[in-house]
Amino acid sequence: YGGRRRVLNLDGEWEFGLRMGKFDSMSPSFSTANKDLTPNSTTVPSCFDAAPPGYAGPRGVGMYRTKFEASLSGGLRVWFGACSFYCRVFLDGKEVGDHRAGGYVAFYLDVPAKDGDPAKEHELFVLADNRFNHTTAPLHTGGDFWHYGGIMRSVVVHELPADTPLIWRVYVHSDTIDGVVNASVVLTDQNYSGDFTYELSIDGSPRNSPPKTVQVKNGRFDIKSIEIPDFKLWSPDSPNLHKITVVNTKRRSQISERFGIRKFGIEAGSGRLTVNGKVLKLMGWNHHTQFPKTGASPTNEQLDADAKLLLDAHANYVRGSHYPQDQRWLDRMDEAGILMWEETLGPDTSVKDLQDWKVFMPLQLKQIDQMIDASFNHPSIVAWGWFNEGPSDHKEACPAYAACAERAKLRDPSRFRTWASNRAERDQCLEHATMVSFNSYPGWYEHEGNLSYVEPFWKENAAWVKAHFPEKPFTISETGAGGVFEWNHNKTDAKWTLKYQTEVIQRDVEVGLKDSNISGFTLWHLYDFKGNDGATASCGHCDYVPNVYPPICGYINVSCSRPGGLNHKGSVDFWRRIKPAYKAVSVMFKNASTYL
Q: Partner of 375 at 20 to 30 A CA spacing, among 117, 243, 256, 429?
């Protein structure tokens, strides 16, 4: 943002309180007046339930309070990068609105204008409820990971003008290879229709002269056929980025958006995925947003370190599991040339959920809209996804899959539409996907100990997709095996040893690279990560060696499905210590022929 517009980043220290036990976070009589609600302080963004693996963070209602100075003469827009699970927002004691469409997606709430209101101090109060509840948080349906709570990403306040609206976003339609793009400009007032004068700049070039005046309808207008001077395509090998700046001439305010020019497609006859007309083998890992100490609110340094792990291993593809991504992470993927699959929150959905067109599905479609709103301009995103391991083997669930696919296509026809299915040949809804993706763990959950089972399993699945959906790329969205970091010196390749983990993963990678019917694969998972509430309660933590950091387990019970409260399928551990699997995969990726 730039020019004459007032934007306030509210990150920093807030007053904070945590309410445990029975509490109705949707109560219409709730009042923010009691200062005892926030007796402590905390940093925003952060997760109030961040705790080590095997230890349960608190489930309750976080209450946040801060003050800022602004004028309400034109109203305010309060933007949240993520507020989890259920978020309820008050300004000066009056409720502004709430959010139930998933705790990991960006959203905003508008504060109505107050004529003649001078700049003065205002109080923002936020209630964040991280308890699983079908009413307050219907999209938090479960899944094999810890769902974090709180104001997990940044909070930004935009002061809105009383007359001509501001430019909110500029979405660049850059699915091309000829350097000519289109842009859709969205204003802050969706009801505004009338004249709007703007100036345009590309990559810092002088603005167009004279300014252009267009007719705006319902707060939007399009800029057609923008020629990008000296354009360079974005690709994994050359992640070139461009910048568009649109200026509101009347208000002298502006917005700049970064984008990349690239085109995703399908090779005729083979059904293989292409980038800029070339067949590309996608190879990489799944990546949750979980970090020691910070949970789902990582520092920039933590994000940099994970991006480096991917680059050092020569990965070119990441699946962002299982929720909308932090925009800072997507920025890093754009810059690194690593393709991204981004999906909505919603693993472990039921047929009942997907048939709920009064609550669940409207919120799910809203989540898709908000995910695309936030992430549209990231050139790294190759696919939109939803319903990880959902009930797609039931025909009655398919209308929900179709609705998600249609919504994503309406908003963005340039990217693939998919879901990670563990139903394989039993999946009844694949006609609604433009990329077919399967989760399975041969050699781990299926035919444990049988390493020779891995290659024929994936070859048969890939051949089945080729036979039934010949013009759709097939990717392996999850596969791998577990390995306890401390079990590195075993002479045998028993279950949970790093030796056996490496042997399974090597075979997954080998078939993924060799089989021409497999367009790509994302191993599960880049690092070990914290399990869900059930795993935390039933498995607990390991017996840590005292006074050692990063922690070392002196004893860990592997009879539990999530030993020490962790999913151990990472190629590095939770503290990002390298396992042999990471080294082996790195060598295989380095020697792979990615362009075919």
A: 429
Q: Give the CA dihedral 294, 299, 303, 305, nearest 10 degrees.
A: -90
> Whose structure tokens read 């101090």?
121
3-class secondary structure, 78:
strand
* Alpha-helix runs per DSSP H in 263-359: 300-312, 327-336, 351-354
The residues with which 200 forms a beta bridge, in sequence order, are: 246
Other residues' Cβ atoms within 10 Å of the Cβ of residue 576? 19
The Cα 335–Cα 340 span in angstroms is 12
Output the pLDDT for position 343.
98
Selection from 524, 575, 516, 402 nearest residue 53 by Cα: 575
Rg (CA), the chain: 24
How is residue 217 annotated by DSSP?
B
Q: Are 373 and 101 in contact (CB under 8 A)?
A: no
Rounded-to-integer distance, Cα 394 and Cα 63, Å: 41
Exposure string for 170-195, b = 16+ CB within 10 A, e = fewer: bbbbbbbeebebebebbbbbeebeee
End-to-end CA distance of the chain: 41
The interaxial angle of helices 498-514 and 454-468, nearest 10 deg, is: 30
pLDDT of 172 strictly over 80: yes
Average pLDDT over residues 201-206: 89
Q: pLDDT tens digits for 30-69?
A: 999 999 999 999 999 999 999 999 999 999 999 999 999 9
pLDDT of 367-397, one tens digit each? 999 999 999 999 999 999 999 999 999 999 9
Contacts of 445 (CB under 8 A, 6+ apart): none
- Secondary structure (3-state) at 495: coil
Tokens standing for residue 86:
């259920």
Question: Strand pairing of 420-421 and 416-418?
Answer: unpaired
Q: Is residue 269 packed enough to be buried (19+ CB in 10 Å), middle (13-18) or exposed (0-12)?
A: exposed
**What's the confidence (pLDDT) of residue 118?**
83
Ranges 26-30, 288-292, 353-357, 591-595: which has the least confidence: 591-595
Q: Is-contact 529 288, C-beta < 8 A? A: yes
How far apart are the C-alpha atoms of 470 and 165, rounded to whole Å? 48
Yes or no: say if 402 and 410 are a contact pair by the CB < 8 Å rule.
no
> CA 502 to CA 571: how far, in whole Å?
9
* Paired tokens of 364: 């799910």
Nearest-angstrom CA–CA distance, 224 and 360: 37
Q: Tell me, what amino acid is at 465?
A: V
Six token digits for residue 2: 């730039």
Beta pairing, strands 520-523 & 474-478: parallel
| Cα 156 to chain centroid, rounded | 19
